[in-house]
TrEMBL record:
SUPFAM superfamilies: MFS general substrate transporter (SSF103473). Its main location: membrane. Keywords: Membrane, Transmembrane, Transmembrane helix, Transport. PROSITE patterns: MFS. InterPro entries: MFS (IPR011701), MFS_dom (IPR020846), MFS_trans_sf (IPR036259), Sugar_transport-like (IPR052528). It is a multi-pass membrane protein. This is Major facilitator superfamily (MFS) profile domain-containing protein. The keyword Membrane applies. The lineage of its organism: Bacteria, Bacillati, Bacillota, Bacilli, Bacillales. It comes from the Bacteria. Residues 179-427 form the Major facilitator superfamily (MFS) profile domain.
């Protein structure tokens, strides 16, 4: 457990410890029911690549509701209650998706899943703003980077255990039994998750001075550095969605990789992320998030391009290399983008800044898996090598070019003339 300053009271210590429990359980739940095995479940239900892409897009487009959530917080500032209700609907409705094959006729499986997944995604996104701001207020600023590093490490451990165990289990049962057990365990995790979320303190929230006004909504858009950066990140997330989010589909449906190797690959991703989160966290103390993101973007693009290594080396070796690079780059992306949003937002306007960020990334991110899924449906008659890795390599190359040109212009930190003269004077 992280050591906090002496003046930190015992309630805050207990709350931060409870937040670690919440992170662990939430990660187990998410990797069981919304992780790489969700693709397998959708294939079991009979989904096509286009339908899988559409379903993967739903949580992202539902991020648009966070603006409504931020406004609602200004009128009803009880963040604890909003988070508890929203996440309860999300967790238990997602668990109920496992009942679809047992309750509905087969031709209804995908339509019913789409409806349920849309509702639970809406609920989860609506709860994200109050929960994120509540969590941010809970963690002292002076230890936030270190605490987040520990939290991300813990979630990496949880993901590793969950993904590896679930993949081993699914390969040893038929699909009906395997997914039934997956959702049963997921339901139990949902109960535990809501218990620990219920133990968060109900910290007071001070509404913005602007209240519910258009001026309040437009505040983030007047911050040119923030809005240009968020627009680039949004487009980048769209590219990630058309590639990385469909890795599991490509492995299971095109390359015919078994669930055990799917689990091993994603476990490696989690393990590498554990180490990478710690390293990126330490680097973020020394350098700004903007500067470090200039390293993260190219690494992320290379991770996608390396999928083409299967043309030269065995698939297991390719997966090890890809998911190693992916673990390093995605850990940095997740941590540094969050730090960037937090550091560029005034404390009182944090909800609306986060809402604009989540809405824009969600809007652009929605099209990523959707476009990717439609592309994979379109190229079904193309040569097998292009389906397995050709399309991914092409998109990865475009991402690399953008990371070395556009990203550098937006995120490059230029020294002000006064800073330069001060440095010259000190010499």
């Amino acid at each position: 457990m992280i050591t906090l300053p002496g003046q930190t009271n015992s309630l805050q210590r207990k709350s931060l410890k409870n937040a670690h429990y919440e992170a662990f359980i939430s990660t187990v739940f998410a990797n069981l029911l919304q992780g790489p095995y969700l693709t397998g479940y959708l294939l079991y239900l009979g989904a096509t690549a286009g339908q899988i892409g559409l379903i993967m897009s739903i949580p992202l487009v539902m991020n648009a509701v966070v603006i409504a959530s931020a406004y609602f917080m200004e009128k009803y500032p009880n963040r604890y209650r909003i988070s508890l209700i929203g996440y309860s609907i999300h967790r238990f409705l997602l668990s109920a998706c496992g009942l679809i094959p047992f309750v509905f006729p087969q031709e209804w499986w995908i339509p019913v899943f789409l409806i349920m997944y849309s509702i639970l995604s809406f609920s989860g996104s609506f709860a994200s703003v109050p929960f994120t701001t509540l969590f941010t207020d809970l963690v002292p600023t002076q230890v936030r980077a270190k605490y987040l590093g520990q939290r991300f490490t813990l979630t990496g451990i949880a993901a590793s255990i969950t993904i590896l165990t679930a993949g081993w289990w699914l390969d040893r049962l038929n699909h009906t039994e395997g997914f039934a057990w997956l959702f049963i365990v997921g339901f139990l995790m949902a109960i535990l998750n809501m218990i620990v979320i219920g133990r968060y303190p109900n910290l007071p929230y001070t509404p913005s001075e602007n209240g519910l006004s258009l001026q309040h909504l437009l505040k983030p858009f007047r911050n040119s550095t923030f809005i240009k950066s968020v627009l680039f990140v949004s487009i980048w997330i769209m590219a990630q969605g058309s590639t990385i989010s469909l890795f599991s589909y490509v492995m299971l449906d095109i390359m015919k990789v078994n669930y055990e190797w799917l689990g091993i690959s994603n476990t490696l991703l989690a393990v590498i992320s554990i180490v990478a989160f710690s390293i990126w966290g330490k680097l973020s103390i020394k350098w700004s998030a903007q500067k470090l993101l200039l390293w993260v973007f190219p690494l992320n693009a290379v991770s996608v391009m390396l999928w083409g290594l299967q043309a030269f080396i065995p698939v297991p070796f390719m997966l090890i290399i890809v998911y190693t690079f992916l673990g390093v780059s995605m850990a940095g992306f997740g941590l540094l983008v969050f730090n960037f949003v937090v550091s560029n937002a005034p404390k009182k306007d944090m909800p609306i800044y986060y809402a604009v960020y989540a809405s824009l990334t969600g809007l652009f991110g929605f099209f990523g898996p959707l476009i990717g899924g439609l592309l994979f449906d379109y190229i079904k008659t193309w040569p097998l090598w292009y389906q397995e890795y050709g399309l991914l390599v092409c998109i990865g190359l475009l991402m690399l070019l953008a990371s070395l040109t556009i990203a550098f212009r937006i995120f490059h930190v230029r020294r002000t003339p006064s800073a330069a003269s001060d440095q010259h004077a000190s010499m």
